[in-house]
Write the structure tokens for this entry.
Amino acid sequence: MLAIYKRELSAYFTSTIGYIFMAVFLALSGAIVWFSTFFSASTSFANYFFIMIFFFIVLIPILTMKLLSEERRTKTEQILLTSPVSLAGIVTAKFFAALTLFEVTFLISLLNLIPVSRYGTVNIAEIISNFIGVTCVAASLIAIGIFISALTESQFIAAIGSIAVILGTLLVGLFSSSISNNVIRIVVKWFSILDRYVNFRYGIFDVSSIIYYVSISAIFLFLTVRVYEKRRWA
Amino acid sequence: MIEIKSLTKVFGDKVAVDNLTFTVEDGEIMGFLGPNGAGKSTTMNILTGYLSATSGTAVINGADIFEEPNRAKKNIGFLPEQPPLYQDMTVMEYLKFVYSLKGAVQPRREHLDEICRMAGIDHVKHRVIKNLSKGYRQRVGIAQALVGDPKVLIFDEPTVGLDPNQIIEIRTLIKNLGKKHTVILSTHILSEVQAVCDRIVIINKGKIVADSPTAQLLSNTAGTVKYRAKLACRDVSTATRLVSSVDGVKAVTPAQATEEGISEVIFDTDPSIDVRHGLFNVLAEKGVALMGLENVSLTLEDIFTSLTVGKGAK
């Protein structure tokens, strides 16, 4: 399992995808920090993190699109599936490889916050809780992206599919409050990745939300394993 | 050792593997033959745990691939039809990856160096896989299967894409591996099976149509032994008549002559009679020199046609 994790992580950098992801992420981060603090004369980063999440619509699929689809297309999955590693192990390794690259990039992007601290008091608790919240959101979206990547042989289709689904899960939160039917609203809200983020945004460390995000990630990784199981039995 | 019992795999309404049963002993090299779509790759994929079976069991060195997949998989080295190579890695990086993926315990450096030497990829081990020729990629695929020194080796058409010299090298390699390992080798090429395998299993439409030691299959299947003779006489009909008169010769057909003044004939003989004495006597009596006599090997096509059109088709 560790072998797959390491290979996946180094594969990001033997292809250009890892560099593209980091470059786009960091460039966006810089621009949004400037826009949400200096430009808005604010030292709160709540808006910065919130806006960043919307760029995950494009950023996360870059990370996940080829994780499984490419293996299937080039038949390299055969060596994984015939090695003494469980399916869950394979999927988890890939998930953590993507999450690691995300986290490292995200940590680097926090350097963008340092200049702001020169011009005012920065709320550290807010940054920490947002950091945790964003990580949780990203982990869920990566799990969704991996699931979609398992459904197709084409990384292009995986990318488009992930963009559509992530867009959907983020937007559903924005519109869910205008649904009048209580039952439907509650059900829809459950799928809204963004809804649980609100507490983190305001500096509240919310354990129940963390459990929600961990569950979402686990469910989609489990579904990914099921996709492979089903294909084996087909 | 590999034991397969009534293995069946159904895709939708198509039966790909139909109640397959066979055993491959330790130190045996089994040739697995059949036309495209016969179910060879499906069987191999099931054996290695890549696919599941609809019913039946497959036991690798005492571990059932369905019940204890990880224990069974540890004992298998598998070269699929298309070598599972990560194009962006160097050969050595890739083998190191496979080494830790399989949880191999041998001292890494020595073990991988040994494998590179055996597979003949020593001089390309620091090159990126996508820049290698097809033959070398195939060898890297073979090397990959050897990592961790598994007891059972399963090769799906290992010599595809290799040049004739490489084919001979790989066959020698597989033959040597067969001394210590249990090997299943699928192929279309009969000469490969003759050169390498102790035993042949032929399948058609998912069913076994022949399972016997190589030599036996080759001599028995067609029911005849075929020769091609060159006779020093200008007239082909004379040659045909002379050969036909030999005891044990069945059908004689004139063949295209390749030398001036020499007739060539191809003839089938009864396998229970060695016709060569008789042929010599007949020709010596008539004063016709025998310029050449060769046993015309049966091709896989011949055997296959006779098996599928003969008993397999009923």
Notes: The CA atoms of residues 247 and 275 of chain B lie 7 Å apart. Chain B has eleven helices and 14 strands. Chain B touches chain A at residues 11, 48-52, 69-71, 73-74, 76, 78, 80, 82, 84-89, 97-98, 100-103, 144 (CB under 8 Å).
